[in-house]
Amino acid sequence: MSPPPTAALSLSLSLLLLLLLSFSTTTTNAHNITRILAKYPQFSSFNHYLTATHLASQINRRQTITVLVLDNTAMSSLLSRHFSLYTLKNILSLHVIVDYFGSKKLHRISKRTTLASTMFQATGSAPGTSGFINITNLKGGKVGFGAEDNEGKLDATFVKSVKEIPYNISVIQISHPLDSAEAEAPTAPPSDLNLIEIMSKQGCKAFADLLKATGADKTFNQNLDAGLTVCCPTDRILKDFMPKYKNLTASKKKSLLLYHGIPVYMNMQLLKTNTGTMNTLATDGVDNFDFTVDKDDEVVTLDTSVVTAKITGIVKDEEPLIVYSINKVLLPKEIYKPVEAVSAPDDDEEADGPADSEAADDQTADDNSGVQGLGGKRLVMVALSLCIGMLLM
């Protein structure tokens, strides 16, 4: 017996609503301040130093943020004072408010003035209220900005809104840098990070030894200051792989090791929100040497087209460095045959030695996953079809 039309309609709409809500929550992407500012050449200097100081990745991790950007002229006046990179990071972090202020909100501030907390305050390096900035509505519709520890002076005014995604991120231009004695105080550099020592003490000694033996460690260290993500096979995993590794030429050994490094800091949240193709330290103008980052709930996987490895833990996370442990050696398709090319067990060989037999196992596991082959948009279309069918019954 078919349900009454009203019951069918209610059921259909409820099903559709639930699926649409599920779809919207699983496809939300975090903002990317570097990409936003890349469209505006007048902010290229500010954008560069957000990356150089690693503030960009910290901004991208925030769910609600306001960035007070400076054009190249304003940045030149700041850079002419020759601050160290570490002091410059404090100064720029004072220009990042940990709240949402769009242009409308700026012009509708209650009682005409408010104090806003910044990322400089959030670091814990700002004593008292020195990490706060004063935002005040002035005459003629202008909005002024000044550091709380600057004796009430409003150094800058609102110029224009650059980009607003309510209530996620607001990027607004201000006229001048904000002066702050605390933010401008000399800042000591962080303690040196010894990548080889860190991995050797945390279950990745075999991988660290290979980096040193091939000279690949120099490339890893050269990228450390700008940001580095390392995917490290544990000692047990690498021990089982060594017979295949020894069959490679010297150049292929080095490329395989460099393939385990990403030349940017990518913590777990960034990996989950930036899934897709990822370049590596082995990437050059001729060969891609990339892999695909994917996630299934809380599990992050790295798919090379030859093997799929899982991130099993975090060995070290101290920006600009993060080291992950992985459960398989990453096999690049530039050296090994992709899974799609394997037609029979006898063909399961790489260019100059046997291919990793685990690759076929991973492919079978992926083929059996079923629902994973359906994208979110396809699920919504299926739901719509079902709902329409029920309405027509």
Q: How is this structure best described in words?
A:
By secondary structure, the chain is of the alpha+beta class. It has 2 domains: 33-174, FAS1 domain (Roll), CATH 2.30.180; 195-356, FAS1 domain. 37% of the residues lie in helices and 21% in strands. The chain is built from 16 helices and 16 strands. The protein has helices at residues 5-26, 33-38, 44-52, 55-61, 72-79, 85-93, 103-106, 119-122, 195-201, 205-214, 216-222, 235-246, 250-258, 268-273, 358-367, 376-392; strands at residues 65-69, 96-97, 113-117, 132-137, 143-147, 156-165, 169-174, 228-233, 261-262, 276-278, 291-296, 299-303, 308-318, 321-326, 349-350, 353-354. The strands form 3 sheets. The chain has a 7-stranded mixed β-sheet. A 7-stranded mixed β-sheet has the order 9-8-14-13-12-11-10. Helix 9 runs antiparallel to helix 10 (205-214).
Would you give the CATH topology of the largest domain? FAS1 domain
Q: What is the C-alpha radius of gyration, as a whole number of Å?
A: 26 Å
End-to-end gap? 12 Å
Number of distinct beta strands: 16
Which structural class do you get from the secondary structure elements? alpha+beta
- pLDDT averaged residue by residue: 81
State the name of the first-level CATH class of the largest domain.
Mainly Beta
Task: Provide the helix percentage.
Answer: 25-40%
Q: Quaternary arrangement of the chains shown?
A: single chain
- Per DSSP, the total helix count is 16
Portion in strands: 15-25%
Main beta sheet strand tally, sense and closure:
7 strands, mixed
Unreliable stretches: 11-29, 341-393
* Shape estimate: elongated
Under CATH, the homologous superfamily of the largest domain reads: FAS1 domain
Q: Give me the side-by-side strand order of the main sheet.
A: 2-1-7-6-5-4-3
Number of domains: 2
Quickly give the CATH architecture of the largest domain.
Roll
